[in-house]
Amino acid sequence: MKTKMPNYVSTTNACKLCKPMGATLAFRGIECSVPFLHGSQGCATYMRRYIISHFNEPMDIASSSLGEKHAIFGGGPNLKQGLKNVTEKFHPKLIGIASTCLTETIGDDLPMLLHEYREMTKGNQDAPILVPVSTPSYSGTHMEGFHAAVRAVVGALTEVSAERTNNIAIIPGFLSPEDIRHIKDISSRYNVPFTILPDISDTLDGPALLEYEKIPHGGTEIPSIKKLGSAAAAIEFGWTIDNIDSAGLLLKEKFGVPHRRLGLPIGLRETDVFFQTLQDLTGLDTPAVYENQRGRFIDSLADGHKYVFGKRAIVYGEEDLVVGLTSFLAEIGVRPVLCASGGKSGRFEHAVKSVCEGLVPEIPQIHEGMDFYEIEKLAEDLEPDILIGHSKGYHLARKRNIPIVRVGFPIHDRIGGQRILHIGYQGAQNLFDCIANALLEKKQNDSETGYSYM
Amino acid sequence: MQKNVLEERQNQVIRKEEGANLKISCDKESTAGAVSQRACVFCGSRVVLYPIADALHLVHGPIGCAVYTWDIRGALSSGPELHRLSFSTDLQERDVIFGGEKKLAAALDELIDRHKPKAAFVYSTCIVGIIGDDLEAVCKKVSEEKKIPVLPVKSEGFKGNKREGYRAACNAMFRLVGTGDTTGIPEKSINILGDFNLAGEIWMIREMYEKIGVHIVANITGDGRVEHIKRAHGASLNVVQCSGATMGLADMMKKEYGIPAIRVSYFGIEDMAESIYAVADYFKDDEMMRKARQVVKGELSIIYPKIQEYRKALSGKKAAIYVGGAFKAFSLVKAFRLLGMDVVMVGSQTGTESEYRELQEITDPGTIIVDDSNPLELSSFLQEKNVDIFVGGVKERPIAYKLGVAFCDHNHERKEALAGFIGMLNFAREVYSSVMSPVWRFMPRSEAHNED
Predict the structure, then answer these.
(1) Residue A211: closest C-alpha in chain B
(2) B129 pLDDT band (50/70/90 cuts)?
(3) Which pLDDT value is given to residue A26?
(4) H-state helical runs in A235-318
(5) Most exposed residue of A234, A311, B236, B442, measured as fewest CB within 10 angstroms of its CB?
(6) Which B residues 161-200 touch A at CB under 8 Å?
(7) Where do the CATH 3.40.50.1980 domains begin and end in chain A?
(8) Could you tell me if B138 and B241 lie in one domain?
(9) Are B164 and B52 part of one and the same domain?
């Protein structure tokens, strides 16, 4: 069943964020780096506020703070002054500079301006690496911005290497710090070195401190990024990444690094594929600890399957996250009835269909480029039992009096968004428990007796 | 040369000296690369107009500006809640190349038919200023077709800071004022300007004024309505809170309609009481003044004993303040003083020279006063002064928490009313419940302190 959506001109309550925001998040995952927006001051401040409200961590984003005269005569002088000030105050190893709709439209040529700045500061030992990325907010979403920034980092840093090492690169995309910690944990149990790019596990979820860190510690180490050209393989998560934004494909094309594209390892099958890939690449079996997690997860499916079976779910958010979640829901017997994203990769529908194959009685409605007004309209006929996505779906859940399981980004109305585990068998376990319990809680609260056993 | 302060910003930070009147540099563009806590023109306009609950607020631009301001303020409405939705034209590359006017007109057409708002505000964002869409013409045309006011808000982000945004918002509202029928408005009537009804604050304030016999024509803009703003020129007096946000509108109303304005603040006991007395005083009405005294006395008798209890626990603790407008900082300095606390740092994003002068007058020697600060400076001030609580907004919060310092949210999305008499009590409780939490003793800061 596929409902034709009316073609609305306006957007109401968007289900996407803007492109430069994604770039700043990716740059935050590089060791000792400062994200920098070439544009007006407001962009940086709005994004910081939005990101801080989710992670509850400092998120400094510098800005060239363009004013009216710069918009007319060009933002070059402010950009250079901003880079100088950031260098002086933060002593970064890298500054990741994302453009905005303002600077793209006035025609500022970032690579050229940075070239001039490098010439100006030639010989300066402390000069940081400057990585520009073009992220006009009028094309694509924060996810395109995120991927483009990762690709830009590889493009700027990675060096040609004569040898091929046993190093494995993982390009995870935008996952939670907890997810990245889990990947690090997994990779530490194999006998080869891994490079995870980018790595926000510490930079966006660090400990309380005695001294304020100008730049939070952690992130992917720059020497490791430089050496990625010699990697044995690059595993890149995400079916919907555009080729021109793919860091994994750049490694393949430019350095001949074998490329393995996987889905986000959410749920059983996609996680199996991930571990199988690791096994193929390292020759090692899945470590016992994960086999055990897998076993316990499957055991719990038997315990809890009845409480979730046939429940109708609306899943929304970033395209690849929705694909992964849908795959998982199909496995546990929940019926995804609508898979929606604000993104428009053109690959979403195919990806969702392939993970549903053979497990769901009916392929869900799959819509790209959606906002919450449209999701809400569709929900009227779909009669969902549960919503799964970020916290901006709360209004809809409240309106329909159904539970919402908060995953992904942003989560602005609860604490702990940075600590949600989505991936691996352990992540599947976490999601399963949350979803089953949300449905149980709803049933219990709605019951007249308020029973004590399931 | 002050450590952790950029050379360009050295004269934007001062430390109060007894008897001296130090000059602080302020009211200028943010330094590039300084990681200012400031937002933009659009932000200024959006926050001021946001609480007008029966208007359509359409952001004309790429998606970011609209999505980052979706349901961003805790501005409550007693009726319609159209203001809580985030509308955007979501401009795409082709719109940027060929112009966004058609898309804007179509979006307005669609949204006005769908929601039947009483008016529409159309916000320009950075890009609209560059591609040169004629908002004025589009709004005029749609307004004629739909028979509602459709008002352009000239809020291109790069055209200054929040203050310019306030001005743009006031200009847009001023086009509404004077278009409504003022029959039946009593002489002793006011407009409340500059309260945004966060956590229902304006309802408490209205109640106080109503108790002393004052009629309220329009809330500008907390729990605001288009029809009320249209007839706001029928009020005898504008009662204006806050430094920049709505003063511009009051000035224009004074010039055009001869309506005088008084400035008040609803934060803190003294200021709140003064806000009531000032209105009674303006109308030169003995009965009103008698009632005003009664109201203040009644409220104080409820909250004062409780505040004394908090004061006992909090006395001598050190507080730091960093807020948007300096006017709010005055009230916070006084509020902390009422709790027996010492303010050791105070700053704002957009204070003016006279406001910083006033801050110097009311603070103790050694207090750091800072304009348009940033996380590196603020964190170093917190450490230098070893503060017990920091009060600010969302962007300041993680700085405090990372260092193990208590924090009080004084932001736009807060859920606790901090205005009015009861607001002072809430503020005391907020400060108390953060400062007195046992969690701080486990922070590296206290552990290091204990080892000394």
Answers:
(1) B403
(2) confident
(3) 98
(4) 247-255, 267-282, 288-308
(5) B442
(6) 161
(7) 19-139, 288-446
(8) no
(9) yes
Class for the domain spanning A288-446: alpha beta
Interface test with A, best of B46, B158, B411, B441 (most A CBs within 10 A): B158
| Residue A327 contacts B where some CB pair is shorter than 8 Å | no
Q: In degrees, to the nearest 5, what angle opens at C-alpha B117 toward C-alphas B235 and B142?
A: 105
Query: Do residue B93 and residue A45 have CB atoms under 8 angstroms apart?
Result: no
Chain B residue with minimal CA distance to A342? B63
ipTM for the predicted complex comes to 0.96
Specify the DSSP class assigned to residue B442: G
Q: What does the angle CA A143 – CA A148 – CA A154 come to, to the nearest 5 degrees?
A: 135
Residue B448 resides in a domain: no
Q: Is B439 on the interface with A (CB under 8 A)?
A: no
Test B126 with A101 for CB contact under 8 angstroms: yes
Whether CATH 3.40.50.620 fits A19-139:
no
Cis peptide before A220 (omega within 30 of 0): no
First to last CA, chain A: 34
The domain of B227 spans 189-298
Give the largest Cα separation in chain A, rounded. Answer: 77
Mean pLDDT within A431-436: 98
Q: What is the CATH number of the domain that holds B214?
A: 3.40.50.1980
Interface-testing mutation among A5, A7, A8, A10, with chain B (most B C-beta atoms within 10 A):
A10
Chain A contact for B42, CB < 8 A? yes
Q: Are residues B106 and B152 in the same domain?
A: yes
Same domain for B286 and B351: no
Going by C-alpha positions, the residue among B126, B187, B115 that lies closest to residue B160 is B126
**Model confidence pLDDT, tens digit, residues A316-372:** 999 999 999 999 999 999 999 999 999 999 999 999 999 999 999 999 999 999 999
Query: A1 pLDDT band (50/70/90 cuts)?
Result: very low
Confidence at B448, pLDDT banded by 50, 70, 90? confident
